[in-house]
Design a protein that fits this description.
The strands form 4 sheets. Strands 5-4-3-6-7-12 form a 6-stranded mixed sheet, with helices on both faces. Strands 1-2-13 form a 3-stranded antiparallel sheet. The protein has helices spanning 15-35, 40-46, 54-74, 111-125, 150-158, 172-182, 206-215, 256-265, 276-288, 307-323, 330-338, and strands at residues 2-4, 76-89, 91-97, 130-136, 140-147, 191-197, 218-224, 231-232, 234-235, 240-241, 251-252, 270-272, 293-305. 42% of the residues lie in helices and 23% in strands. It has 2 domains: 2-75 and 306-338, no CATH class; 86-296, von Willebrand factor, type A domain (Rossmann fold, 3-Layer(aba) Sandwich), CATH 3.40.50.
Length: 339
């Protein structure tokens, strides 16, 4: 069965009627101008190499060449054989801290941007795993339920900012609870959660919920982002360094001990984010080391493409159109020969 791999490129063919209308309008305009010179018989004697219908022929060649190139770009192909492949993977919930402390610039360009880069790098390494995205600050919010549509998750991730969460803080416990509820409850394995945070505010319920999640088969990994020595925060209202109630600069620090404790309680690992790709590789290795569940089968089809034939026809027609000589003025031609 024939099909186009990139069918969206065929929309370019909608330009053809527009080009035809413009060409016809050009012909009428040219005829009107020539009629001011004289009859067609007189004009034909005045123009060197005049051939009626020459411009129409060249336009037809160009139109067919354009159509052939568009067809080649869309890649017409035919399926040769179909194979059935079993998909296996795990369910992964990524919980991203979007509190305003994540805008600190102790790592460049800032903590939140680096966290997004880590998630992008991780999803590039995943294969069949289902992934969900939760954002949290003072409350947790589900942004993307479990899915294998990594492209949609990345698109939504781009728009994540601290402004999407109205309550500030770092309530990791709510993210753990929401993540745990996202998994299939009757399964005791195949589940993992990745918490990316600076862990700045102490959440006394986080350890308790991490232990409870581990008993339900959820492995919790934590990623610390920021520096232990910390840095000041920018206050957009005053356009200067953020100050506390005593007028002292607010220093935002990475709370590694909090995140390490959660990882131990969740039977997972802790990573300090320094190199995004290295941490993503570590997390992916941990996920691949887990027992995989059957996520159903998927059909793969091998195709034979025919784009090269359309491109060859298009280029051949362009070459043919280029070889058609243009018309000239015989008087000018004789002057050039005399010179």
């Amino acid at each position: 069965m024939f099909q186009f791999q990139h069918i969206e490129y065929l929309y370019l063919l909608a330009l053809l009627p527009v080009l035809v209308v413009l060409f016809i309008a050009g012909i009428y305009w040219r005829r009107k101008k020539l009629q001011q010179i004289g009859t067609e018989e007189i004009v034909s004697r005045q123009i060197l190499g005049y051939i009626p219908g020459r411009s129409t022929t060249r336009f037809i060649l160009l139109a067919i060449a354009f159509t052939a190139i568009v067809f080649g770009w869309a890649n017409l192909r035919m399926g040769d054989k179909t194979e059935k492949s079993e998909r296996k993977g795990v369910d992964v919930v990524i919980a991203l801290d979007v509190s305003k402390s994540m805008l600190a610039k102790d790592i460049q360009p800032d903590r939140l941007t680096r966290a997004k880069q880590l998630i992008m790098s991780l999803t590039d390494k995943l294969k069949n795993d289902r992934v969900a995205l939760i954002v949290f600050a003072g409350k947790a919010y589900m942004q993307v339920p479990l899915t294998v549509d990594y492209a949609s998750l990345k698109m939504i991730l781009q728009s994540v900012t601290p402004d999407i969460v109205p309550y500030q803080g770092t309530v990791i416990s709510e993210a753990i609870q929401m993540g745990t509820e996202s998994f299939t409850r009757n399964e005791r394995k195949f589940k993992s959660m990745i918490i990316i945070s600076d862990g700045e505010d102490h959440d006394e319920h986080a350890l308790e919920l991490a232990k409870a999640a581990a008993t339900e088969g959820v492995m919790i990994h934590t990623v610390g982002i920021g520096s232990p020595q910390g840095t000041t925060l920018f206050d957009p209202q005053t356009r200067s360094v953020k100050l506390d109630e005593n007028g002292n600069p607010v220093i935002s620090k990475l709370n590694e001990e909090e995140l390490k404790s959660i990882a131990r309680a969740g039977r997972g690992t802790y990573s300090l984010l320094q190199n995004s790709d290295a941490v993503a590789e570590k997390l992916n290795s941990s996920l691949e080391g887990m027992e995989q569940k059957n996520l159903g089968s998927i059909m793969f089809t091998d195709y034979t493409s025919y784009f090269q034939y359309f491109l060859a026809v298009g280029l051949l027609l362009l070459l043919l159109e280029w070889t058609i000589p243009g018309a000239g003025n015989p008087k000018k031609s004789k002057q050039n020969e005399t010179a």
